[in-house]
Design brief:
Bound molecules: guanosine-5'-diphosphate, magnesium ion
Number of strands of chain A: 7
CATH topology of the domain at 30-198 in chain A: Rossmann fold
CATH class of chain B: Mainly Alpha
Structural class of chain A: alpha/beta
Radius of gyration of chain A: 17 Å
Oligomer: heterodimer
Number of helices of chain B: 22
Distance between the termini of chain B: 46 Å
CATH architecture of chain B: Orthogonal Bundle
Radius of gyration of chain B: 21 Å
Chain lengths: ~250, ~400
């Protein structure tokens, strides 16, 4: 599969809820990741792709919140990513999705490069996260989806990157549909897994998560990005070429 | 009308009975069915139409049986004239929800019969958008929600475009009204009946669910689409629509309770943590014994009527409301997990009911039906949810 190809050499995909870990399931660390963005940007397709499925031919509108999970191995530790795929329509967010913001460990913002409004609405999503007083330590990433569509593209790489920089998060361009374009879907999620693991080496997450006291947010984040050696801010130079064997290096 | 005739041919009837019919008892079923068909036709042909009997048939085993009957009976159950359609609004594209409707309808491929040609389906999808937005234009107070399209498409495939406009127009101001507020607060309140019902019936299961903090969002799509979004079998969906059209707006919640109760064993074996329980519950098994569950839901309804539960539901409502007012909650969460506080509040004064005697089988359908008749359509939800704690006294 995508993720198991030689990335940094330390990240391995394990497949869905496998048993390959030495730890008992109750010891395995669980990270909760919420996926946000306007309706139709591809949140459902991205999470399905990551959890091992093919690009869904007939995805349906998400109603409320859908849950998917996936076990990944990062530096020898098996961890579980819980992905909460949310409905884009505002009404669901306002009264239903609240519950799911609790104890979130990472946030993925998604927009559709062929739909300007989905990009323009990003501040609303970011604000909302802030209002839910997510700890500033909760990693956030920005994902530009549907990069396989070139003829109808209206949001440039530059625009996305600027926004990401401004909001201090790494930026990925991808496509849930085609693995030929941008960063592979699994690498984005594995990036998050790696980051979470690095950020919380020993924490017991199941006991609830109030957030580690967040000082020096910007510097810490940038430092991590640099030291992680993962491509985050780098512009997409050759969107057509598949990064063979070493996307992250 | 050509759309009507087309609708008739979409789904082969009878071959694909809803799960729960005991097919090994084919002759018994055939006999039952034939007798019921005769009775339904009689009710339809009497003047005035015998709506009370139709209601009863819509609830009892097999429901209204064929789409041909549904085309005639559904309008009667909703008391609408399908030929009196609402005016076409010229500017559906200007409606505030138009774009969202298009997005959702475009993604609703699964709701159409698998064999249908693309161009044929696209015509229907365009019609579906039109139907939905016309109803929205007619009722400016109504707000589109994702999932509304799943309800509309079911009607479209059974009764055709124009009749769908009238039926859905009525339904939207009655059964579906609470879903169509600008916010989903009242929808959430309807869901708040779910756990009290389960609590009355199986307190241990209820406690497990509470402990897992699973909430009720797993049943959201069930409720607001009348299961159209989550069941694959079109036959099963229309069977349920018979049931719901004849019943109280909260009946989909009682059915949800019946489904959860039916899955008790699976649930209790699950790790008692929200994601796992949510995941298990939200994936609805496709082979549910639907006829049994309909009976169960009716039972639950008769035993634990909404008025009786209203108080507890309100308590849950408060719980959810406090969950949405996250700021104060964040405060309290520093001291302890909010849910444990709320759970204690909920628990207080909520003695576990001893299992009440089940109503006699023969009475059951009649009781549900009688109640449904006395209620008339709609109004119920609004009344229950807005004020009267003792609506049914
Ligand atoms: N071309 C292309 N289409 C996509 C991509 N991701 C999603 N889609 C399509 O966009 C639509 C919305 O996808 P969905 O995952 O349901 O969006 P969501 O509302 O954010 O969950 C669907 O019709 C998908 O087929 C992508 O990367 N490329
Ligand atoms: Mg979705």
């Amino acid at each position: 599969m995508e993720g198991s190809k030689n990335t940094t050499g330390t990240i391995l995909e394990e497949g869905e809820s496998s048993t390959a870990s030495q730890e008992s399931p109750s010891q395995r660390r669980i990270f909760k990741v919420i996926v946000l963005g306007d309706s139709n940007v591809g949140k459902t397709c991205l999470t399905i792709r990551f959890c091992g499925g093919d690009f869904p031919q007939k995805p349906e509108a998400t109603i409320g919140v859908d849950f998917r999970d996936k076990d990944v191995t990062v530096d020898g530790e098996s961890i579980k990513l819980q992905l909460w795929d949310t409905a884009g329509q505002e009404r669901f967010r306002k009264s239903m999705v609240q519950h799911y913001y609790r104890n979130v460990h990472a946030v993925i913002f998604v927009y559709d490069v062929t739909k300007l409004s989905s990009f323009e609405n990003l501040p609303t999503w970011v604000d909302e996260c802030d209002r839910h007083s997510l700890s500033s330590n909760v990693p956030r990433v920005l994902v530009a989806n549907k990069c396989d569509i070139t003829d109808r593209r209206v949001v440039s790489t530059n625009m996305g990157q600027k926004f990401a920089e401004h909001n201090d998060m790494p930026f990925f361009e991808t496509s849930a549909k085609s693995s030929e374009v941008g960063e592979s879907v699994s690498n984005i999620f594995l990036y998050i897994a790696k980051k979470l693991k690095a950020q919380r080496p020993h924490l017991h997450l199941r006991a609830g998560f109030g957030g580690i006291s967040g000082s020096g947010r910007t510097s810490v984040r940038k430092l991590r990005l640099k030291s992680s050696g993962l491509r985050g801010f780098e512009p997409e130079k050759t969107p057509k070429s598949k990064c063979a064997g070493g996307c992250f290096s | 009308m050509s759309t009507n005739n087309k609708a008739h041919n979409f789904h082969e009837e009878d071959k694909d009975q809803p799960p729960g019919f005991h097919r090994n008892n084919a002759s018994g079923f055939e006999l039952h069915k034939r007798a019921k068909l005769v009775a339904i036709h009689k009710a339809l042909q009497s003047d005035p139409v015998d709506v009370a009997s139709l209601r009863k048939y819509a609830i009892s085993k097999g429901g209204l049986l064929t789409d041909e009957i549904r085309r005639k009976a559904w309008p009667k159950l909703l008391n609408v004239n399908p030929f009196e359609s609402i005016a076409k609004d010229a500017n559906i594209k200007e409606h505030r929800d138009y774009d969202q409707v298009v997005l959702d309808v475009n993604r609703s491929l699964k709701r159409f019969p698998p064999g249908m040609k693309d161009d044929e389906r696209e015509v229907l999808q365009d019609q579906l958008v039109e139907v939905i937005v016309r109803v929205l234009c007619e009722n400016n107070q109504l707000h589109y929600y994702q999932g509304y399209h799943d309800i509309c498409v079911t009607f479209q495939l059974v009764v055709g475009k124009e009749a769908t406009v009238s039926l859905v127009n009525k339904l939207s101001t009655h059964h579906l009204r609470d879903f169509m507020d600008s916010t989903m607060d009242r929808t959430k309140h309807m869901l708040n009946y779910l756990l009290p019902i389960i609590n009355k019936s199986k307190p241990a299961l209820h406690d497990f669910l509470q402990r897992s903090e699973v909430g009720t969002v797993f049943a959201l799509a069930w409720l607001i689409t009348w299961y159209g979004h989550v069941l694959n079998s079109f036959r099963s969906i229309v069977r349920l629509y018979d049931f719901f059209l004849a019943c109280h707006p909260l009946m989909p919640v009682y059915l949800a309770a019946a489904i959860v109760l039916y899955r008790e064993e699976d649930i209790m074996q699950c790790e008692c943590d929200m994601p796992f329980v949510h995941s298990l519950l939200s994936k609805i098994p496709q082979n549910l014994p639907l006829e049994k569950l309909i009976v169960d839901a009716g039972d639950l309804f008769v035993q634990y009527q909404p008025s009786q539960l209203a108080k507890e539901a309100r308590l849950y409502y408060k719980e959810s409301t406090s969950l949405t007012t996250y700021q104060s909650l964040e405060e309290s969460s520093r001291i302890q997990r909010p849910d444990s506080v709320l759970r204690r509040l909920t628990r207080r004064g909520q003695g576990h009911a001893s299992a009440a005697g089940r109503p006699q089988d023969s009475n059951r359908v009649i009781k549900v039906a009688v109640w449904a008749i006395s209620m008339g359509i709609g109004a119920a939800a609004l009344t229950v949810l807005n004020n009267a704690l003792e609506f049914w006294g």
